[in-house]
Amino acid sequence: xxxxxxxxxxxxxxxxxxxxxxxxxxxxxxxxxxxxxxxxxxxxxxxxxxxxxxxxxxxxxxxxxxxxxxxxxxxxxxxxxxxxxxxxxxxxxxxxxxxxxxxxxxxxxxxxxxxxxxxxxxxxxxxxxxxxxxxxxxxxxxxxxxxxxxxxxxxxxxxxxxxxxxxxxxxxxxxxxxxxxxxxxxxxxxxxxxxxxxxxxxxxxxxxxxxxxxxxxxxxxxxxxxxxxxxxxxxxxxxxxxxxxxxxxxxxxxxxxxxxxxxxxxxxxxxxxxxxxxxxxxxxxxxxxxxxxxxxxxxxxxxxxxxxxxxxxxxxxxxxxxxxxxxxxxxxxxxxxxxxxxxxxxxxxxxxxxxxxxxxxxxxxxxxxxxxxxxxxxxxxxxxxxxxxxxxxxxxxxxxxxxxxxxxxxxxxxxxxxxxxxxxxxxxxxxxxxxxxxxxxxxxxxxxxxxxxxxxxxxxxxxxxxxxxxxxxxxxxxxxxxxxxxxxxxxx
Amino acid sequence: xxxxxxxxxxxxxxxxxxxxxxxxxxxxxxxxxxxxxxxxxxxxxxxxxxxxxxxxxxxxxxxxxxxxxxxxxxxxxxxxxxxxxxxxxxxxxxxxxxxxxxxxxxxxxxxxxxxxxxxxxxxxxxxxxxxxxxxxxxxxxxxxxxxxxxxxxxxxxxxxxxxxxxxxxxxx
Lengths: 492, 172
Hints:
- The structure holds 2 protein chains of 2 kinds.
- By secondary structure, chain A is of the alpha+beta class.
- Chain A is 23% helix and 32% strand.
- Chain A has 10 helices and 24 strands.
- Chain A has a 12-stranded mixed β-sheet, covered by helices on one side. An 8-stranded antiparallel β-sheet of chain A has the order 15-17-18-19-23-22-21-20.
- In chain A, a hairpin with a 4-residue loop joins strand 5 and strand 6.
- The termini of chain A are far apart.
- By secondary structure, chain B is mostly helical.
- In chain B, 80% of the residues lie in helices and 0% in strands.
- Chain B contains 9 helices and no strands.
- Chain B is globular and about 55 Å long.
- The chains are: A alpha+beta, B mainly alpha.
- At the A-B interface, strand 1, helix 1, helix 2, strand 2 and helix 3 of A face helix 1, helix 2, helix 3, helix 6 and helix 7 of B.
C-alpha cells in the first residue's frame, strides 16, 4: 500500500541531480530524506473513476466545441467584434518573468487588455470618445514614468489581506526598474546594455538569487525584456474598452481625483478556480493613465492593484536602470540567442544570420517608428505551453510610439507546417476564438491569417506561407494589424 | 476514447510525483484523491492543446499545485490554521495510524513539513525532492526563480530549526 522509493518523485532524480549544477543549489541530503517519506497510494478505484469522468468530459467537450464554432462565425459578423481593438499578453512568458513583473502583467495588462472581455463592454458614447482621446494622448506622449505599485491580495487567513509594494520607473525606450519596498527584490532592464537583471535577498539581507538575461528579442512571441509590463497597452487597452460597444463606464472620484471607471464581466480560466469573473479599471481623467484595477469573483475580492504617486515624465538618471550585482554573487545567466543589429544592416548582416532575405512592413500606423531589430539563428519554442518548435531564422522588429508598441516577427516554418499553432495564443485554461482573414497583398497574399483580439493575449495576427511564419502584434486595431501584414516587403 | 487513453497514459507516468506533492500539501489521503481527480479533470480539459511531451510534466505539477492551493484556501475560509491546529492535526493523524506521518524515523521530517506554509513546502519538494530546476519550479509555482530561491531558503532554514528543536525536546 505504501511506497517509499525514489519513483514517488518522478523517478529520475539521479539524472536531474547530476545534470543541474551551479548556482541553483539543491539540498541533496534533505531531498533524499523527503523522497523516503511515505506517500499513500490512490484508492483502488481511483483511475477507474477518473476514466469515467474523462469519458463524460470528452462527450460534453465535443458539444461545447460545436457551440464555440458557431459563436466564432457569429462574432465575425458583429460590430462589437470588429471594434474590440486591443488586448493583452502571452501568459506563457510569466514563467520567466520575475514577481513584480508577473504581478504587473496580471494586473495591468491582463486587466486593461485581456480579461476584460472586450466583447461585453457597453461604454457611454460621450465617455468613450473622451477616454479614447485621453488615453491615446497619454500613451503616445509620455516618455518616462515613476510611481509606487501596490498589489493587494487575499491573506493567508480570514479577512486580512496581504499588501506588496514596489517602486517603479520606466522609459518609452524600454528601460525599467522595479524595486520591492516590502520585500528585497530588485529587477531592471537597461536597453543600452540589452540586459535584464534580478537580485533577490533574504530577510537578513543575504543574497539568495541573482540572475541576468541577455540576447533577447524585441518582443513577443520571443523572449523579450519585461519592459512591456509597465508600459505597453496602458493606454491601448483602455482605448479598446472605451471604443467597444458593451463596456460599462461611469464617472467617479478616486483618491480625490476625477476618474472613469470601466467595469465588465470577464471570462474565467478553466483551470484556475480563483480567477476573477469581474474587473473594474479606474482611469485618471486628467492624465489618461489607469490607476487602479479591482478583480472579483462572485462579488468577492480576488486582487487589487493600484498606483500611488504616479509621475509622468519625471527626470531620471540613466544609471537607475543599471542594477549592480553584489560582489561575489553567483549569477544565473540566461541567453536568449538574439542579437541586436542596426536596422540599416538587416538586409546584409541580418540576412546572413537568419538565412533568408528579411521582410518588414512598408507601412505602419502613423506615429510608429522602427526602433530596434534583433535576429537569431535559432529561436526558442513558442505558443501555448511552448509547443511550437524552436524555429531557425528569427527576425524581431520593434516599432514604438511613446509607450505604444508594434512588434513584427518572422521565422522559418520548416518542413512540417502542421507543427505550428498560434505563437501568441492565450495561456492554458483559455480557449481562443480567432478571426480568420485571407490576406490580399504582400508575401502572404492568399494565405489565411488568424487575428486574435481577445482576453489573455496581445492583439495579434499570425500567418504562414510556404517559407515563413509571420506575427504582427501590439497596440493596433484589427484593421491596422491586417494592413501591416499586407504591407510586408523585402528589406533592401 | 483515444484521447482519454492517451491522457491516462500520460498522467500515469507522472502520477507518483504528483501524488507525493499533493499528499504533502494536503496531508490527507482522501483529500489527496479528491483533489487529484479534480486536477486531472482540469488538465484533461486543456490536454487537446498539447502536441508534445516537453513541458507536460511541469504543466501537470502546476495544475495539481494550484488545485491544492485552491483547496487549502477554501479550508481557510472556515477555519483558521494555526501552529497548534497543525500540530493537533499531526497528532490526530498519528493516533489514526497514518503511516505517512508515523513511520519510525520519518515523523520528524513529515511533521516539520506540515509547519511550513504550503508555498515553501512545495518549493522544497519540487527542487530538493523532485529535482526540478529553479526555472521549472518557478513555472510550476507561477513565481519568478528568485522567489523560488527565497522560499527554499526559508523552508530549509525552518526545517533545520524545527528538526533541531524536536531533537532537543526528545520528540524524535
